[in-house]
Here is the input.
Amino acid sequence: MKNLRKPFALTVAMSALAVGILVSCDTDDDEVTPTTTASAGTVSITDAVSSNFKSAVTISVGTNSIVLKSNGVPDHVSPYWGSASALYEAPTLTGQIVNPGSLQEQTFVMTIPIFPAEASTKEETSLGPIGMALNGVAIYNDREGGNVPVDAGTLQSFDRSGAHSGPGGLYHYHFNGDFTSLDDANLIGFLRDGFPIYGRQDKDGTYPSDLDTNGGHTGVTADFTTPIYHYHTSNVSYLDSRFYVLKAGSYNGTKGTFTF
Ligand SMILES: [Zn+2]
Ligand SMILES: [Zn+2]
Here is the structure.
């Protein structure tokens, strides 16, 4: 199904029509059907959240939801720290052009369901935080201001973690990178609908071939012995770069809040 993601991205502006277009495109792959009917909502993410988020993220487990708080700054080196920081490193990528302004501490509060469930109507992800990586950094989709896909010029602003800073010094991952996931099955974080996001591989080392138009499928992972819906990073190099999009398209579930 991953070959359908590009057509989806091209049609996503016509979101009201996108479902119909997808159906008409979906002539060669019936494997998506089990995924869309999987009864998520029965698998708790509490243990996986509690055991995988780093100490920089404060976790509060309620009755139905989990609240994750962080200051949004990475636990790894980046040019975006600014040269006065011990975590500063000079740009390492060919042609890299660092955005002006250093990264700044934020006040992130993300609330996600303990039992994430598939939504009957899938909401498109939007600009701004769509999830939180295990170190508390915000995850963004494949788009930039104006809601257009990251272009070749903007691509030069990313550090080797697939991140850059935006307005207010808000540092965020759009792509995979050296400190989250490269060509592996790493757990990267959780999106606002409560579903986890992994690297390009499944835990058996294979590249999933049955991803739906939102980049996910249902199955077991290193963190879930009961099958659960989970996203994967794209397995297609973005604009022939070193980067792979973390998440494009819509949420599978209903998004929780993310304030900052
Ligand atoms: Zn950005
Ligand atoms: Zn998978």
